[in-house]
Specification:
With 229 residues, the chain is mostly helical. It has 14 helices and no strands. The protein folds into 2 domains: 109 residues, no CATH class; 118 residues, Alpha Horseshoe (Leucine-rich Repeat Variant). Helix content is 62%, strand content 0%. It is globular.
Amino acid sequence: MTEIQERLFALRDEAYKSFTAPLLPGLDRERMIGVRTPAVRKLAKELKKEGLAEAFLQELPHRYFEENGLHAALLCQERDFDRCIERVEAFLPFVDNWATCDGLNPRVFKRHHPELLKRVPAWLKSPQPYTKRFAIGVLMNHFLDADFEPETLNWVVSLRSEEYYVNMMIAWYLATALAKQYEAALPCLVERRLDRWTHNKAIQKAVESYRITPEQKAYLRTLRRKKDE
């Protein structure tokens, strides 16, 4: 066992592991230690200060779920955009669950939107579902406000996937787009540009959002599709 693995095991919480495991279907329970996310992030900061982060980031693939979470947390601290992108792309092939994927949102991305956007199309075309999910998350987190472009909305709604966690992210993205760019996003539902399941899931998430007005919610409910549609 490595020193970092020992430090993770020292933070384990069996009750938390029992709670978390069902939320990550498909992930081998033996690969879960049971460490809470704040503790993983705190450890990432400690490793950075101790000069141990660099070596750890080279140790791919990792064995444990929490090691991947630690890897993502370290990438979130990276301040150099080019180095961050290089390391993100090295890490993405090993991301195998939604939690690790969604935890990967480097702060440096906020300051480099033009360069970041150029990377997204390749990620969207990846055969790996969590690379696709990551790309959609990037568009949702960084390109639905001042830097929104209708073209990026089209990138997402044009995707077709058999993967549950990709389609769930598409729905989440569209619900967020409805909250932030309602007029641009609404035609995606009116024109039925998504498969039925993702279409209805996007409406469900939008209706649950406090950022959508009651009038908008009422109209969105009329757009739900039945099984035979």
